[in-house]
Amino acid sequence: MTVFFLLLGAAAGALLAERQGLEAVTGALLSAGELIALVIPLVIIAIVMAAYAQALLPREIVERWLGRDAGWRGLFIAIGAGAVTPGGPFMAFPLVVGLRAVGASLPICITYLTAWSVLGIQRILIWELPFFGVDFVVLRLVISLPLPLIAGITAQWLGEPGRH
Amino acid sequence: MVYAYLSILGMALILGVMGHRHTEVNHATVLHRAWRQLAPLLIRLPIALIAASFVGELIPQALFGEWLGERSGLSGVVLASVLGGILPGGPTVTFPLILVLERAGVGIPQLIALLTGWSCFAVHRVLAYELPTLGWSFVWRRWLVSMILGPLSGALAIAWL
Description:
Chain A is mostly helical. Chain A has eight helices and no strands. The longest helix of chain A has 35 residues. The longest helix of chain B is centred in the first third of the chain and has 32 residues. Chain B has two domains: 42 residues; 102 residues, no CATH class. Chain B is mainly α.
């Protein structure tokens, strides 16, 4: 991935220099530098925070709450759990596999994954807030609140998939 | 921006104190894990942001405004959802790219649809994690219900604004 960006940056930089001159390249570098200075400290704090959250939230507790026969209450717990699950996919997917193993239904798992995708607090703090600001984040969150529930309820019509 | 710093610093402190009181949480282990996640980003993120900044200067802004700008309405929302759905890569790749799109004049509802489409479809994540662990029978069901979420979020944003 790093190599991809190196190549993309080199190619785009060269093209920019050829089309609009070196001044455009310096300008773009400066604005990128500003963004880097702003974003990197946030990313550092957020990752430390997420590591603590991960250490404090044992998987067994979530699995107990979202297991078989969780029902409506389960859908809402799934939304909350998805929003607060720290860490990337290496954290969320083992949890869903665990949930399936203890008998959680497809709607619960889909609600959880959708909540984690659209409401995930960690991604919001590390990425969205520094890049897009508070106003945008609040608007997107309000709009996204019903989405996990809609996904979960729609999934009820699809039937249970076979166990993998 | 100040809010972002304060809120995140506050949460980190609270969790750190909670971890300090918890007997099973070891500060060294936690910080070590954090460092392992952070180290690759410290190199990748600046490079990605510079590359995105260059690409942003090259994108013809008028074209973007017409297709995905505020005035593109619902068709722009649908286009943005599809575009988000096929964006490969995690947040390191996607957020700098989306920032470039924002500066190129993509409207707020379209931006929300793009983010929703990307985060729910997440082709990269499905291939690396979901398919191997949960299987195709799970993935296609989740994809099917996720298809409406991007356009729905964009439509809600249009109604809201």
